[in-house]
Specification:
Strand content: 5-15%
Distance between the termini: 18 Å
Oligomer: single chain
Largest sheet: 3 strands, antiparallel
Length: 92
Amino acid sequence: MDKIPVTCPFCNPPADEMVAKNVFCYARWDRYLVSKGHLLVIPFRYVADYFSRTVDEKHAVLALVDECKEVIEENLSPAVYNIGFNVGEAAG
């Protein structure tokens, strides 16, 4: 497991920044937009990467992605979606 950073920008998010959440993760609008409507789904538990997550955690992430699609639709009505996972430092 990765060491938890001293000042993690994702830990202990204010409730008003959470767009949606479940037992294993939460979603919030990105503070540094890649594109309009960019949402981040952030797991609560620290692990080395996505592939180290439990099956339940992976399912929760994907369930939250589905829930966030509804939030994005209500706010922006995009024509397309891009869903990705950053794995490793070089990936962001």
